[in-house]
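Annex B. Sample input.
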Amino acid sequence: MIGTELLDDPRSDPVLVGRELRDIARLNALFGGTRAVVRELRFFFERRRAMGNRKRETWTLLDVGAGSGDIALAARAAARQLDIDLKAIGLELNPTAARIASAAGVPTIVADGSALPLGPRSVDVVVASQVLHHLPRPVAVRWIATLDRIARRAVVLADLRRSRVAMAGVWAASVGLAMSGVTRHDAVVSLKRGYTKTEFDEMLRQAGVRTVARYRRGARIVAAWSPSTE
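Annex B, continued. Sample output.
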C-alpha cells in the first residue's frame, strides 16, 4: 500500500474522521465523485422503464464504505425521479463514519467488507465508491467477486484515476476551500493509490467479472455491470 490515510484505521480520532468525511462529501459533489456513481446507477434505473415497467418499485442498495452517506443519499434521490424507492443500507468499518451516515438517514452497520453478512443475490444494487484503493490489490479483487455475488441487479464501482495533474488540483482546491490538512494529505495519497484503466480491468478479470472500466471526469474511474445469473 502507498502511504497511510486517516480512514485506513477504524480507531482514528472521531473528530478528525467527521471533519474529513465532510470534506470528502464536498469534494465528491464538486469534482465528480457523486456524479460518477449516479450516472451509472441511472442506466439501470432507466433500463427498467425502457423495458416497459412503469410501476413504482422498491429496490435495496448496499453502500460498501458508506462514508457520510452522501453517495447513497444522492442515489436515492436519482431513483425517486424514476419511480424507484431505494432503501439504502451502508456498511462501514469505521464506527464514527457509521454513526454519521446513520444520522444522515442511511442506516449503516459496522462490518468488514471481507466478511459481508449477506447471501447470494440478497440486495438489488451494490455500490463501492472510493473504497477499493484502501485495500491491497488481492483483497480488492476478492471484494469485487463478493460484491458481484451478492447483487441481483447491478454493481457500481467508482474509484480514483491516478493522475499527477489531479493531485496538484485537489491539493489546491482543498487549500482554497479551507479543508483540513489531514484531508489535503489524504486526498493526494488516495490519488497516488488510484488506478489506471489497465490495472482496474485486470482486477475485474481476476474477480471473474465480464466488464471493463471507464474514465470519467474529475479523475474518476468506474465499472458497472449486471451480475450473471449463471
